[in-house]
């Protein structure tokens, strides 16, 4: 076996897909698209280096592996890297050579960033390769489906009708509200929450436009938002209806129907889960944040299952969801994802 290395060329993707076959993991499916022509980062595209390994047989090179390293506008403190080797060419040092070559290339990154990160699935060859070459986990992420009725509904105080009388019919109407995804108030809290849970890999300074594009734009599939507010207060004392809404304590943005868990039995899946992004006001105390998230999640999953991404850094959401996983009222959909870094 004679292996030679070269820059990525147009058409390599089609050849490699024939050699590799279908993706072995969700990470492979996601990152195969990162394998493309190298870029100097001067034409508006991110800086990228992509190298192909060819097995030369009778003077003809057949691509069998490829690796890429590239800058990211979001989470700019590390470079993404991805390497894939054909099954019948593994354990021959090809992946190690590609990683060594890519590490040499990072010195040319305009940002000056040299640290690498990647996504792997525990127990796979990719995870074992990352461990051998000094890429250790910095975050764990799971997709979790919360079953209908998994959480007890919160009890809201009766709403004051403005005449000093309590009205049970509208209890909670001044704290649980629909909100347009284009709301400036929503955009602000979503952006600050995302930054607060990514101290382990900073996203940098997020503009209003970036937050909209990432989480709330129509192109993301976002089609609704529900917020849980603090109880509104009145400047004129008890018995007088407040003129201002309470600030947002927790939020949930819903997206298109989530993909079904491929490992689950079809008869057990029932209704498709709605994909939601759940978070809270970062300034809340830990107990208050956990309570707010739990109350909002109970409303979301009252009659229909919801699917959400649960990172280990989401402490308030973990406080609500992990007990449900332990009791079978929620289930993990698919395998965990580890983000590893050097």
UniProtKB/TrEMBL annotation:
InterPro entries: Acyl_CoA_acyltransferase (IPR016181)
This protein's name: N-acetyltransferase domain-containing protein
Organism: Pseudarthrobacter sulfonivorans
Organism phylogeny: Bacteria, Bacillati, Actinomycetota, Actinomycetes, Micrococcales
């Amino acid at each position: 076996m004679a292996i030679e290395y070269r820059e990525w060329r147009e058409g390599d993707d089609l050849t490699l897909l024939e050699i590799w076959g279908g993706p072995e993991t969700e990470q492979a499916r996601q990152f195969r698209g990162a394998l493309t022509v190298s870029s100097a980062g001067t034409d508006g595209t991110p800086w990228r280096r992509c190298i192909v390994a060819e097995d030369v047989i009778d003077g003809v090179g057949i691509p069998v592996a490829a690796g890429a390293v590239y800058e990211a506008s979001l989470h700019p403190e590390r470079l993404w890297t991805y390497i894939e080797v054909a099954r019948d060419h593994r354990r021959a040092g090809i992946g190690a050579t590609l990683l060594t070559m890519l590490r040499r290339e990072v010195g040319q990154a305009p940002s000056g960033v040299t640290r690498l990160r990647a996504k792997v699935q525990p127990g796979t060859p990719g995870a074992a390769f990352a461990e051998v070459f000094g890429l250790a986990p910095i975050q764990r992420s799971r997709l979790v489906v919360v079953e209908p009725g998994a959480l007890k509904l919160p009890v809201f105080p009766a709403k004051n009708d403005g005449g000093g009388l309590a009205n049970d019919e509208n209890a909670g109407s001044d704290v649980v509200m629909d909100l347009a995804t284009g709301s400036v108030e929503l955009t602000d809290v979503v952006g600050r929450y995302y930054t607060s849970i990514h101290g382990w890999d900073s996203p940098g300074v997020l503009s209003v436009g970036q937050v909209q594009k990432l989480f709330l734009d129509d192109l993301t599939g976002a089609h609704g938002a529900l917020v849980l507010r603090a109880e509104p207060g009145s400047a004129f004392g008890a018995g007088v209806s407040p003129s201002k809404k309470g600030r947002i304590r927790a939020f949930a943005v819903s997206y298109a129907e989530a993909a079904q868990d491929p490992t689950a039995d079809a008869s057990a899946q029932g209704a498709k889960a709605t994909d939601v992004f759940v978070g809270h006001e970062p300034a809340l105390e830990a107990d208050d944040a956990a309570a707010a998230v739990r109350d909002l999640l109970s409303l979301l999953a009252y009659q229909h299952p919801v699917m959400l991404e649960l990172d280990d850094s989401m402490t308030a959401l973990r406080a609500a969801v992990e007990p449900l996983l332990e009791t079978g009222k929620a289930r993990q959909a698919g395998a965990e994802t580890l983000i590893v870094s050097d």
